[in-house]
TrEMBL record:
GO molecular function, one term: glucokinase activity
Name of the protein in its database record: Phosphotransferase
Span of domain Hexokinase C-terminal: 167-236, 238-384
Family stated for the protein in its record: Belongs to the hexokinase family.
InterPro entries membership: ATPase_NBD, Hexokinase, Hexokinase_BS, Hexokinase_C, Hexokinase_N
Length: 394
């Protein structure tokens, strides 16, 4: 839970940095905030992927790599574009989207890795301290003022420009959601109530389990397979001939962008499907009939994922009492993540399902919006509102 304090922070101005590590890619963002009415004056970012070897190495190796990219980006800051009020240090917001036990606004211990990372010596460590040490090793003196989850960052970034943003959903390598809740509706909160009367809930909905969403045999197979690769491969079907092709036995060989390309193949002979099967799986000469079945399969898998995500959003809207609005008040759901952004069929199915679930009348008051890197801006804003510099001066 994070207290809603952005409102008071708008007097902040200066250069803020945000670093976003949430999966296969990480981004570094530089923002010039223009004070009370100025908003975001300038922003620049750079992106890099995490080399697979570093995803399973040591904490130092990962954070050294990140610190080096950040150091290079900071060194490239141009004086003509970015101005820092005199005597004020640049500060950093760290968006770290893995399960963390947050111990303060700028510290938190890693509970476990997800999304393909497995760096055992980082588990149980304060990720802000790990990052800070690496920055110091690279000669970057930039305090980390806020540790943020990407859903929280997206919510804060979205709300900064549009007060109707009340929900943020990430659909990328992983998935999660956050929303604005009435503080009084949070039984486990016994502290003082925030002035706004609202708090933000980070749902960590990737861990959601419910009897209402039964796991299918394929879910179990995938779960087991992800821990013990190679042990749970179904060889019952021989769809592409009498034998199961060798590449089909390799877990996770078919990446979402390839599946998406096949799903969106509009050519009359489904040549993208044929090409992908050949390139990725080394299966050639697939008949048109079989290619059509492959597209249908892509559709089944996508529709299930999209409908589950829509059900999750409906759950939030119900909890907020916004699932049957008849008045013109809008509820904006800020979405981000590569899956939502790039997979048009997925995105369309999610939005149609949500409309179907809330009904036409309410659908007009629910707006699903792509928040383009709202998370980075949000992290920079939260950094500004929790500035260590301001704390020191007050
Ligand atoms: N062209 C694409 N079509 C479908 N899915 C895509 C495409 N490009 C990326 N993705 C999905 O987006 C995910 C990356 O999401 P992103 O939000 O960029 O990063 P991350 O969650 O790793 O920080 C990939 O794992 C992949 O599933």
């Amino acid at each position: 839970m994070v207290r809603e304090e952005e409102e008071e922070s708008r007097s902040d101005e200066g250069v803020f940095y945000a670093l976003d590590l949430g999966g296969t890619n990480f981004r570094v963002l530089r923002v010039q905030l223009g004070g009370k009415a100025g908003g975001v004056v300038h922003q620049e970012f750079t992106e890099a992927s995490i080399p697979p070897a570093l995803m399973g190495g040591t904490s130092d190796a990962l954070f050294n790599y990140i610190a080096e990219k950040l150091a290079n980006f900071v060194a490239a800051e141009e004086e003509q574009k970015f101005h820092q009020p005199p005597g004020r240090q640049r500060e950093l917001g760290f968006t770290f989207s893995f399960p963390v036990m947050q111990t303060s606004i700028n510290s938190g211990t890693l509970i476990r890795w997800t999304k393909g990372f497995s760096i055992s010596d980082a588990v149980g460590q304060d990720v802000v301290a790990e990052l800070t040490k690496a920055l110091q090793r690279k000669g970057v003196e930039m305090p980390v003022a806020a540790l943020v989850n990407d859903t929280i960052g997206t919510l804060a970034g979205g709300r900064y420009t549009n007060k109707d943003v009340a929900v943020a959903v990430i659909l990328g390598t992983g998935t999660n959601a956050a929303y604005v809740e009435r503080a009084q509706a949070i039984p486990k909160w016994h502290g003082p109530l925030p002035k706004s009367g609202e708090m933000v809930i980070n749902m960590e909905w990737g861990n959601f389990r419910s009897l209402h969403l039964p796991l299918m045999e394929y879910d179990h197979a995938m779960d087991v397979e992800s821990l013990n690769p190679g042990e749970q491969i179904s060889e019952e079907a021989a769809f592409f001939g009498d034998e199961v092709h060798a590449k089909l036995k390799i877990s996770f060989i078919l990446r979402t962008p390839d599946m998406s390309a096949m799903h969106h193949d509009t050519s009359s002979d489904l040549r993208v499907v044929g090409q992908k099967l050949k390139d990725v799986l080394e299966i050639s000469n697939t008949s048109l009939k079989k290619s059509r079945i492959v597209v249908k399969l892509c559709n089944i898998v996508t529709a299930r994922g999209a409908r589950l995500a829509a059900a999750g959003v409906l759950g939030i809207l119900k909890k907020m009492g916004r699932d049957s609005l008849k008045d013109p008040q809008k509820t904006v759901v800020a979405m981000d993540g590569g899956l939502y952004e790039h997979y048009a069929e997925y995105r369309g199915c999610l939005e149609n399902t949500l409309r179907e679930l809330v009904g036409e009348e309410t659908a007009s008051s629910i707006v699903v919006e792509h928040s383009n890197d709202g998370s980075g801006i949000g992290a920079a804003l939260l950094t500004a509102s929790h500035s260590l510099y301001l704390k020191d001066k007050s």
